[in-house]
Design a protein that fits this description.
By secondary structure, the protein is an all-alpha fold. It has 2 domains: 10-65, Orthogonal Bundle (Arc Repressor Mutant, subunit A), CATH 1.10.10; 67-226, Tetracycline Repressor, domain 2, CATH 1.10.357. The protein has 11 helices and no strands. The longest helix is centred in the first third of the chain and has 33 residues, at 8-40. The termini are far apart.
Length: 238
């Protein structure tokens, strides 16, 4: 006789609800830590501050995060995941690859403005910069948990690179882009965008996001050459 477990479905539903509850609480703690760091910086951040900001007990915070180092690394993962979801949505749309690239640039610029306050707070914090040396492979103290979080950050970044390269490949296949290594192309675009955003810290002049997007897109496609250069070359070779 086959015995049917009638409670299996109920247990699965309860587990799914519990997982969603834990994930929501984890995200709330990370967002609370973000607000505290904006106000006080990384060095002054304490788990007590985070608990008060999230309106939960410190013990609950420690159930999810053992240190403020873990908290800030988890914040980076949250940012990467948020951007990745936007990227996947754009890729699935039925529009030319060039338009998808424009949308990605616009979202990146908007997201960087939304997180500029926390970025500025962290980049000026010596304690944070010392901690982040481990992200680039330099020696530094870090727990096993922090090492795992760093590995996850790198994994999320590579997912973004891969998804972006798929859009470049799509454009090449459709004849919108010239044949070029998609991965290298995305890494070069990423470097351009990161450098552009970094200069915002020192440049008081701000252009509208739409204008910034068009400037960057135009540079990606044409660089320093003339816009009709490709047509002139074709004519010369005819």
């Amino acid at each position: 006789m086959v015995r049917i477990d009638l409670n299996k479905g109920s247990r699965s539903q309860r587990q799914a609800r519990e997982n969603r509850r834990r994930q929501a609480l984890r995200q709330a703690i990370v967002q609370a830590a973000e607000r505290v760091m904006i106000r006080h910086g990384y060095a002054a951040l304490t788990m007590d501050d985070v608990a008060r900001e999230a309106e939960i007990s410190k013990a609950t915070v420690y159930n999810y995060f053992r240190s403020k180092g873990e908290l800030v690394l988890e914040l980076f993962i949250y940012y990467f995941e948020k951007f990745y979801r936007s990227l996947v949505r754009i890729k699935a749309e039925t529009k030319p690859a060039k338009e998808k690239l424009r949308d990605i640039i616009a979202i990146f610029l908007r997201f960087s403005r939304e997180t500029e306050t926390i970025s500025r707070a962290l980049i000026m914090d010596k304690a944070f910069l010392k901690k982040m040396k481990i992200l680039v492979g330099e020696a530094g103290e870090s727990s096993d948990r922090e090492k795992n979080l760093i590995a996850e950050i790198k994994k999320q970044r590579e997912k973004i690179i891969k998804e972006g390269s798929n859009i470049i490949t799509e454009g090449i296949t459709r004849g919108e882009f010239r044949p070029i290594d998609p991965i290298v192309t995305v890494r070069l675009i990423e470097s351009l965008l990161q450098g552009f955003v970094h200069t915002r810290f020192w440049n008081p002049t701000r252009l509208p996001l739409e204008k910034e997007t068009e400037i960057l897109l135009d540079f990606i496609f044409w660089g320093l050459g003339q816009k009709n250069e490709s047509e002139e070359m074709k004519g010369a070779g005819a």
